[in-house]
Structures are given as C-alpha cells and as structure tokens.
Amino acid sequence: MKIRILAAAGAFGLLTAFANSQALPVINEFVADHAGSDTNEFVEVFGSANSDLSNFFVLEIEGDGTGAGVLDEIIQVGTTDAGGFWVTPYAAGMLENGTITLLLVTDLSGATVGQDLDTDNDGVFDTTPWTSIVDSVGVTDSGSGDVNYSSVVLSPGYDGNSFRPGGASRIPNGVDTDTIADWMRNDWDGEGFPGFTGTPVVGEALNTAGSTNLAVVPEPATMAALALGAIGLIRRRRS
Q1: Nearest to 214 by CA among 160, 165, 173
Q2: Which of 28, 117, 187, 194 is the most exposed place for a label (fewest CB within 10 A)?
Q3: CA-CA distance, 51 to 137, in Å (whole number)?
Q4: Predicted local confidence at residue 4, as pLDDT
C-alpha cells in the first residue's frame, strides 16, 4: 500500500486548533523511547498562541511496581510560540521507558523529584501538591503490579501494534476527547528526528517537536479504492 505523510489538520484540524486556543493547554506530543540511544526525548504542550504558561508543570510519575507514585521529573512550562507550541529541548534519559504517567498540572508547590505521591501504591494520590490536573496521559508495558494515574493509558496493542509506544502524538493536533483515540504512536525508528531514517507506516505519526503533528495515511488513490470497495459492499448488503 502506498503511503504519504499528511499534516493531520485540514478543516477539522484547524477547527480543533481554534477551539483549543480558547481552552486549557494539553500535552500534545511526547517521546520517551526511540531507536538507538534515547537522545531525543521531549514533551510538547499545545495551547493558546504566545501565552505565558509558567504556572503549568509537566510531571512524570513512576508506575512500575513498588515505585509507583514517585515523582520522577518536574518540567515547568514556558511561553508558547505563535503556533501555540511549547516544547522541551531534546534530552537523553529525561523520561523512563517503562510504565509512566505524564500530568499537566497548575500551581505546583512544595513538590520535589523523588517524592512519593502514592505511598500505598494503590493508584490514588495521597499527596497532591498542585491546584488541578488539567491533562494527563499514561503509557504502560503491562508489567505485574504497574499503576497509571490517568484515564487515558496507551498500552501494548492499544492501536493494534503489540509493542509499547515509545512516544505518541495527538491526531489531529490538539484534539482532546479524553480517550486513547486522540493518540497515535510515533514512528519508533525516529522519522522526523535529525539524522534518523525512520520507517513510518500507516497509523503512525512523525516525531514533530514544536510543530503541527503529522500522521501517515494511504495515498489518495488507495483511499479512493477503499471508499469504492466500501460502497460496493454496502450495495451488495442492500440488494
């Protein structure tokens, strides 16, 4: 099947971006693991253009076994650019490769890296050093006793791919229905990273730190053939 890279915007994506400009920011894309050494890990936040988001923080929460609930990373968000994006620089080892939850919270106070926010590891925070959680997404490798702290959890097989996603993007950009359908796994082989030759396939997103999220879709001719096939199937069922 022929494929092409598509900016998953169009009319729907542009409307989504416009709607999101009137709403709270979201975690829009992240990468915790990719081919080779994990030198290009990042977190991207999407919100209103040119907005000071310094009262927002991205928190990485450990989810593996007895370490569940430990605060592994605190990232203070800055000011979005003209497109509404704020993104961390590429980093090595910033995010863990196992079961984690990313939270976007407001007004963090008194929190420290290494602090255990869930002392009994039951999946419910015992300590909440923030005013509110405005967005969240989890990744799990489905290990025994693992815990996530989000209603949206990307697990092995969540999209038909049996591997744990190393990173994911909201497709279309900024869409937020609080379901796994918002998220498409990023190409693990690094398509979009400088110096990487990726292997993107239909159903994957590119790594697009600080810019509009991109998905891989079938070529128009393939889409047309699929549509004609669907029409034929409907006609056969009606006859």
Answers
A1: 173
A2: 194
A3: 22
A4: 53
Task: Give 136's Cβ-side CA count (13 Å radius).
Answer: 18
The reply to whether omega before 172 is within 30° of 0 (cis) is: yes
Of the candidates 188, 184, 211, which has an alpha carbon nearest to the alpha carbon of residue 199? 188
Query: Reduced to 3 states, what is the DSSP secondary structure of residue 18?
Result: helix
- Give the model confidence (pLDDT) of 42-101 as tens digits: 999 999 999 999 999 999 999 998 899 999 999 999 999 999 999 999 999 999 999 999
User: How many Cα atoms within 13 Å fall on the side-chain side of residue 6?
Assistant: 20
Instruction: Report the distance separating Cα 141 and Cα 174, nearest Å.
Output: 25
* C-alpha Rg value of the chain to the nearest Å: 19
- Please tell me the predicted confidence (pLDDT) of residue 65: 87
Half-sphere exposure of 46 (CA within 13 A, CB side): 26
> SS3 for 237?
helix
User: What's the CA gap between 210 and 80, in Å, rounded?
Assistant: 10
